[in-house]
């Protein structure tokens, strides 16, 4: 196993109960195992958020470059609303 560092953490009573229950139910060998899994999930979530943020920044940069070069379309509330509905429907089905 990699280097191990012992940390002391403070949790609310309800969080502590969740961890203890997970161990008592047999899903985990120890409280540390529960915390490690939670941290792995948190790390993955942060990485996904960072990827989405980077993609959004790239899209904004592309839009700004397009606007600077005059590649724009006339404003259409109807077109924007339709695109929003399509994106929402796509996200709901995923």
TrEMBL record:
Presence of keyword Coiled coil: no
Protein name: Ribbon-helix-helix protein, CopG family
Ribbon-helix-helix protein CopG domain location: 5-43
Naturally occurring in which organism (per UniProt): Paracidobacterium acidisoli
InterPro entries the record matches: CopG, ParD, ParD_sf, Ribbon_hlx_hlx
Family: Belongs to the ParD antitoxin family.
Gene Ontology biological process terms, A to Z: regulation of DNA-templated transcription
Keywords: Toxin-antitoxin system
